[in-house]
Specification:
single chain, alpha/beta, six-stranded mixed sheet, 7 helices, 31% helix
Amino acid sequence: MNKEFDGGILSPDFPSFKKDIHPTFEAIFAASKMKKGKHWDYHQTDKVYTFSWTKKKLWVFSAEKPIAGPNLGYGGINEFSLCPWDRVNEFIRRVRMKAPFKQRIFAGTPEDKHGWLQDYVNMMNSKVEKDNDELLFRIVHGDTSENTHTDEDYVSTLEYLLDEQALKCFKEGKIIKLSTDLFYYAFSRDKNVSTVLS
């Protein structure tokens, strides 16, 4: 629907993009019998996809440095919670063309690493209520136990390895502010401090 507009993808960094998004795209193209160089291409230096059905491009950005460049008609952020707010804000502001399908997608596990996610959700929910537009903003949670593409033992492994707080985030897809020192939110003076008598 937005093929007449440039689009964009924001990833936390380019190594993540190469390990995650790019192989997924290649698998989708292969499954659709689309050939590289004929139906699609990726320019590694310019960080841009091109397609045979449009002259418009799909640009790839990294959250490692400020974002400038093209005006976009649609965009997606992969592993959004691993990106600092400044980069997310810059990316959102680039998606400003009057495209037929308004599309800004954030995908990833919602560990609120940089502390902006819950504030953003609250702000967008307030905007939905004010403008009475349900399509403006929507959150879709995915529970790992419902994912048919993961190994049967994966969920029980998560349950064994993670504490209750991290499990809510990485298994249930709930927005959780996890400190970079992952032990901290689980710390309790009652449980974790003892008096040593000498």
